[in-house]
Design a protein that fits this description.
Layout: E1 3-7, H1 11-22, E2 26-31, E3 51-52, H2 56-60, E4 63-65, H3 71-76, H4 79-88, E5 93-96, E6 100-103, H5 108-118, E7 123-126, E8 129-136, E9 163-170, E10 175-177, E11 180-183, H6 198-205, E12 210-216, E13 220-221, H7 225-229, E14 234-244, E15 247-258, E16 262-264, H8 266-272, E17 283-288, H9 295-308, H10 327-334, H11 347-358, E18 360-364, E19 366-367, E20 375-380, E21 395-396, E22 398-400, E23 408-409, H12 414-428
Parallel strand pairs: 1-2, 1-11, 2-7, 9-21, 11-22
Antiparallel strand pairs: 3-6, 4-23, 5-6, 8-9, 9-10, 12-20, 13-16, 13-19, 14-15, 14-17, 15-16, 17-18
Helix pairs in contact: 1-5, 1-12, 9-11
Length: 430
């Protein structure tokens, strides 16, 4: 049995520790925070969307970056096994809209406590990881080829790992020796919960490539004053399309929110993961306020509304169409005289209103910051990690799991599931 060292007591770290203990390994977990698994408490708005009740195949359609990397780990530990495990740990679960899975209690603390119980056979030490303990490996001897090599088409020889990881030096100065070291430190999002990006520093010590970390599943900043005028307004059953240089790159229907700095809510978070280099491209969001209606159907609806509200001024004529906080903003953007009675509004003006309702534009100026991002996109390049075992291709005995990897998905329980299945793959392939 192996002596296992897990760096980070978050979702991936505790899951890996518990699974490794059950495989009979001796496990030590290093956590630089006094209280482990803090980030779990802020997931799902404090309710913890623990996974998504879908098949592994369906799941992969919701993984934005490097879904192929997850084929093995997700196949071995799909959402159904996550749900089964937490129910075995005493957590009663429920499935909500979009097949999102939550504890019946609606308390993320219950998930945190379940993970701590799962990992209770491991030794938890309050210490960070400052440096990998690496030993150089002698170049492997090449076996004689079974057949003569074609000089015109020589086979590319993939270099093997240059190091063996034998432990880490903690921030305390103490050295922890191990047969297997798992980096499960998370990303950079929600730094108040302990996310510091230390895992990237450790990976670089072993020669790993780090894909630049950026905020993902994050609110979007817009200097459009209309957003601030409508802050707090939540829209349901709308469609949001994200445009990059006037080309649509994301469309989805659901919920969104106007804020004092721009837009937020589930639709916005999902759209944010599609943003590229904002110095090279321009972005805008386009909101269809009535996606269930075609433009002609909406025109007919507006015509009927205005007939019923014939003597109302322009804003009052919108009472059946739009939320109250949006009505004055719509009138201003519409450009119509607010004193205009509903029965005086022309066909052309109604057509203009239809266009605004179907194509409400919000210019996007920036991503929200890492302090408020749900996850970090980017991280350790998966080209340098074995997708079955999570072992580094740069250093024997070094492994990665969870958000520290360059794998991310949309909102809906998918990112926690990635943490769980990559952690299980590590433990089950030691």
């Amino acid at each position: 049995m192996a002596n296992v060292l897990v760096i980070g007591a978050g979702a991936a770290g505790l899951m890996a520790a518990g699974a490794a203990v059950r495989q009979g390994h001796t496990v030590t977990v290093l956590e630089h925070q006094e209280k482990p698994a803090q980030k779990i408490l802020v997931t799902g708005k404090g309710r913890c969307n623990v996974t998504n009740d879908c098949t592994a195949e369906e799941f992969l359609h919701h993984v934005r970056t490097n879904p192929r990397f997850l084929y093995s780990s997700l196949g071995a530990f799909p959402p159904a096994k996550t749900m089964e495990l937490f129910e075995e740990l005493g957590v009663e679960l429920k499935v909500e809209r979009g097949r999102r899975v939550f504890p019946v209690s609606d308390k993320a603390e219950e998930i945190r406590q379940a993970l701590l119980r799962y990992a209770e056979g491991a030794v938890l030490i309050e210490d960070g990881a400052q440096k990998l303990l690496l030993e150089p490996l002698a170049p492997a001897e090449e076996a004689a080829p079974a057949a003569p090599e074609n000089p015109r088409h020589p086979k590319k020889k993939k270099p093997g790992p240059a190091y063996r990881c034998v432990g880490v030096r903690g921030t305390s100065g103490r050295e922890y020796k191990a047969d297997a070291v798992l980096v499960a430190t998370g990303g950079l999002s929600y730094p108040t919960t302990g996310s510091t990006g230390d895992g990237y520093k450790l990976a670089r010590q072993a020669g790993h490539t780090i894909v630049d970390p950026v905020p993902s599943l994050v609110s979007l900043v817009s200097h459009d004053p209309d957003c601030k005028k409508m802050m707090g307004l939540a829209l349901k059953n709308v469609s949001l399309t994200l445009f990059e240089d006037n080309k649509a790159i994301f469309t989805e229907q659901g919920e969104m929110l106007f804020t004092h700095f721009g837009i937020s809510g589930p639709l916005t978070l999902s759209a944010s993961s599609h943003l590229g280099d904002m110095k090279k491209h321009t972005y805008k969001a386009e909101i269809d306020l009535k996606p269930a209606l075609s433009e002609e159907q909406l025109y007919d609806r507006i015509t009927r509304d205005f007939a019923l509200l014939a003597n109302h001024a322009a804003q009052g004529a919108l009472v059946k169409l739009l939320p109250s906080s949006m009505q004055p903003v719509m009138v201003a953007r519409w450009g119509i005289d607010p004193a205009t009675k509903a029965n005086q509004i022309t066909r052309e003006q109604k057509r203009e209103l239809v266009q605004l309702c179907k194509h409400w534009e919000v210019p996007i100026d920036a991503r929200g910051d890492l302090a408020h991002a749900v996850i970090t996109a980017g991280g350790v390049s998966v080209r340098e990690v074995d997708p079955k075992t999570m072992q580094s291709k740069k250093a024997q005995g070094l492994y990665f799991a969870g958000e520290v990897l360059d794998v991310d998905a949309y909102t809906g329980g998918y990112n926690l599931q990635i943490a769980f299945c990559t952690a299980q793959s590590f433990a089950n392939n030691l």
